[in-house]
Design goal:
mainly alpha; 64% helix
């Protein structure tokens, strides 16, 4: 029984490492997308109920 329990524990630890790596990769992806979007800050506008010059009609 000790061999089976040890094998199961090793498999569980390996699965935890893989899930942790996938989670870390997802966080890195979201962080990198955020950084890229923040670098283009001039084109970013929020919906905060203020007049936005880009929507004004120029005549």
């Amino acid at each position: 029984m000790s061999g089976t329990q040890n094998n199961s524990s090793a498999r569980r630890n390996r699965n935890n490492v893989v899930i942790g790596a996938v989670l870390l990769a997802f966080v890195a992806l979201v962080f990198s997308i955020t950084v890229v979007k923040m670098m283009g800050g001039a084109t970013m506008e929020a919906y905060d109920h203020t007049v936005r010059p880009s929507l004004e009609k120029t005549e």
